[in-house]
Write a structure and sequence with these properties.
This protein is α+β, with helices and mostly antiparallel strands. It has one domain (3-147): Thiol Ester Dehydrase, Chain A, CATH 3.10.129. It is built from five helices and six strands. It has a six-stranded antiparallel β-sheet with strand order 1-2-4-5-6-3. Strand 1 (31-37) and strand 2 form a beta hairpin. It is globular, with a radius of gyration of 15 Å. The two termini are 28 Å apart.
Length: 150
């Protein structure tokens, strides 16, 4: 996408706010969008006691949800409805109750409709908790038109 075409897009801030307003899953998990730029996003999530597994650490499904949500915002930052096509996660260390985890998504490749994004989840001390890679596919639909109530 050329610079002129990108300048005509709604700002990532507008796109993120519109998407977050209807993202009941993210809000339910306690995920907060902190940064959104073209192809890049950061989000945080407080590990609550109800997110702990039987071993007393953050359940992997919540880590996946944080990473997947952050990935979703990064790949939708071009105002094209984009979906995950594939994703994988590697758990490095446990998330603990009371920690606010930060996920950072970065676009690695965007060619045509296909994107690849890497997400790192870190604890408050900067320790790596998980690595996630998501592959996206974009549609021809505009995100803003899809998420704003008619």
């Amino acid at each position: 996408m050329g610079n002129d075409a990108m300048n005509e897009l709604p700002s990532p801030t507008v796109l993120g706010a519109a998407m977050y307003a209807v993202d009941t899953a993210a809000r339910g998990f306690g995920v907060k969008l902190e940064v959104l730029e073209r192809g890049r996003a950061e989000a945080t999530m407080l590990v609550r006691p109800d997110m702990l597994n039987g071993l007393g650490v953050c359940h992997g499904a919540y880590l996946f949800a944080l990473a997947d949500t952050t990935f979703a915002y990064a790949c939708n930052s071009y105002n094209r409805v984009s979906f995950a096509q594939a994703a994988q996660i590697h758990f490095v260390q446990a998330g603990r109750a009371g920690e606010t985890l930060r996920a950072s998504a970065v676009e690695r490749s965007l060619r045509g409709r296909a994107g690849v994004y890497d997400v790192e989840i870190r604890n408050p001390a900067g320790g790596l908790v998980a690595l996630f890679r998501g592959e996206s596919v974009a549609t021809d639909r505009e995100l803003l038109a899809a998420v704003v109530p008619k």
